[in-house]
């Protein structure tokens, strides 16, 4: 059965960390839905990839989605700057309900705002690992880490491993 995956996104996302996992999700027969500040608006990646926001965060209901994708780049930092904390609250639902969460590079930063990282094993790009550790996570330096519903990766070079694990969990 096809699953619907929420993708939290803002400007300056790392292009390939969106396009490659999104393609893997779609090739596995599932749907990726872009969620951002305003439906119909355009977000632009660090390298020029342009993506239309399908659903605004104000209208998005996490229970409507089977999983969550958090691409890296500067997007996660922008999303965490939301004064109302809507993106962290949205992500928290997936952590609490043990629904699949896929986060690469800087993507795991958003999970800090869920307050649900204590004791979880994950990886990320080097410059956010200390923040994740301070949030209680057991941070390791591996291409991909699967901890129950949470799948994390470090950098674009890890995308093959990351995408393989995304497909594995979605096709269970």
UniProtKB/TrEMBL annotation:
InterPro entries: C56_PfpI-like, Class_I_gatase-like, DJ-1/PfpI. It holds the Pfam family DJ-1_PfpI. Coiled coil: none annotated. It comes from the Bacteria. Keywords: Glutamine amidotransferase. Residues 3-167 form the DJ-1/PfpI domain. Belongs to the peptidase C56 family. This is Type 1 glutamine amidotransferase. It comes from Staphylococcus canis.
